[in-house]
Amino acid sequence: MLNRAFGRDQGLEYFASVFLLGLTSIAAQIILLREFLSFFYGNELVLGLILANWMLLTGLGAYLGKNAEKRVFSLTPAMSMLGVLAVLPFLLVFLMYYLRNLVFVQGSMLNLLEIYLSSLVLLIPFCLLSGFIFTLLSELTSRYHQKNLISKVYAWESFGSLAGGIVFNLVLIWFMKTFQSLTLLALLNLLMLSWLAWRGGMKKLVWFFGAVFVGMVMLNILVNPDLLARKFLYRGHQVEYYKSSPYGNIVVTRQGEQVNFYENQFLLFSSRQPSLNEESVHYPLVQHTAPGPRRVLLLSGGTPGMIREILKYDVSRIDYVEINPWLIQAVRKYSDVYDDPRVGVINRDARLYIKSSQEKYDAALIHLPEPSTVQLNRFYTRSFYSELKERLTPGAVISFSISGSSNYMSEEERQLNSSLYQTLKTAFSHVIIIPGEKLYFVASDQPLTYEVARLAKQRGLDNVYVNPYYIQDDLLKRRGKLIKENLMENAQVNTDFEPITYYLKVQQWLSYFDFNYWMPLVLAGFVALYFFIRLHPVNLGMFAAGFAGASVEVILLVAFQILYGYVYSMVGIIVTVFMAGLAVGTFYRPKLIPRVHVSTYYRLIWWMGGYVLLLPVILHLLRRASIHPHIMHALFVLMMFGTAMLVGMIFSLASQLRLKKWITIVSEVYSVDLLGAGIGTFVVSVYLIPVLGLMNVLLITSGITLLSGLLVLLRLGKK
Q1: pTM here?
Q2: Among residues 516, 512, 484, which one has the least CA distance to residue 417?
């Protein structure tokens, strides 16, 4: 029946369909994950939960695919499912925008259970279907060629993911809005599927794909889905500007005379917030000795209001470092503050700029978000403050703020504030915390004071809020000293490779919902232990390889950002390289390691464990050495490629070692691979890195992998 459908010389259609599945899956994952993080104010905990859902559901879909053997005898149903899969991301994202404020209170913060269930429900159709299709295509391809081609199907799917990563992560994401990208993804799929159906003589499918194609085109001509979706999301606001930038979704709304700037639904600033602007600027800058700061460094969050407050001083230069150029474009539509010749805008990662710049500043205002992610934690570490201090003049002052109150401090807030304070003390002699709308940490090597209102008046600053009429310095001093008295003197110092403030910030966030931080880890541990005991030894090795591969991928991404700086395009390249490694390892394993034997399998797992064991040494050397950026990039690319290549080779061997039906083999091996990767991503990013640090996590990952290889040896012997 298969031969009648395509003919013996047309088996390429099977691999083309698999390639298309990989391209669609990775492109949808990139876009959907960005939207989920935007909706749920994402950090690594949220990302870990969503990725775990993604991989577990896809694995479940692959496992359920083994039941299709008796019902599917041709490629036609698989191609029909691919057509549905192409349109699903568009529908799911639109549904997210439409339901967000109908299901939940507008502007409310979702708890962890709500985030988990929401992402689970929305991901079920896409992930189950994509996993099901992979198993189905593996069976159909192997049956068509009358031999086990599971590893080759996996390789072609990885090649498709590589292409999708390049096109969508490195190209379209820079130039297209969310629904434009989703539309293009659907149209590209429908075109390729129409061509495949035409070659196979499936006229009904050609007409079906053509009709859906025309419908998608007409929908985008008649309706602007991006604007319509954001109107649903920002009910009661007039949406004036929106942009899906590589760094986040920017939306500008208007309510009466107030203009609001959002990034990933988080309110960055509004046109009317004089007290916040004045506190952020004058609390630190009045501390600088007369005649005041001349050169000021502003790291992110450079609202027009803040810059205008800085310009009240006799400054010669304000260098505003903002990684997202699209945010600057949005602000320029409403303000001309960046046109002042004293203001310079620098579109770079703030930490990378500080490392590479030779400029000296009299003050540095850090207006970055709080350390709620590992990436943001980089700006609250001992190393960062040491690097920043090298860019400061003697007597310079720095500041940052976090949410909090002097009237009440929870235990989680107390630990977080204590760690931040002790970390600042490693670089600066004097540190004070000034209460206001937020808690302002101010540091310098010169004495500091709480008498900000007196100093503002003395300098003749024309302030609305920071002046003696609104602020009582004595009260400010009492509240500030009360905060300091509540801090812990033995608090752990925050470092790059041991991000304790990220861990404490997540705990503080979870305390709002009375949620036990460790409960998901316990559940994940029980799941992992269950499969560790029950899995066939071959599948156990694949589970360990998936766990190790995902863990190393997370660690290398974090380490790259710490050592070099957050470069969005380079992170995208590193992730894409991982897919290339999977494809190459799976595709070329038969040539590199032609022997299919249990002894080869457990030795390859040991090679994986030994390779992971070397990574802490390499990262330690990179951390201490002064290496050219291009060499640094190349080394991280090689480490990521090597990790993925080993995972691909292990998958290729695992798919050949089992003596079962092809559809049973692929459903089991692929599902346990994703299960291990899902648990690895979640546990490592959410728990192990913040608590144990990068180096210790690599050692643990290596130990788990080596132990798994040993269990394969003990349970299978030398069969």
Answers
A1: 0.82
A2: 484
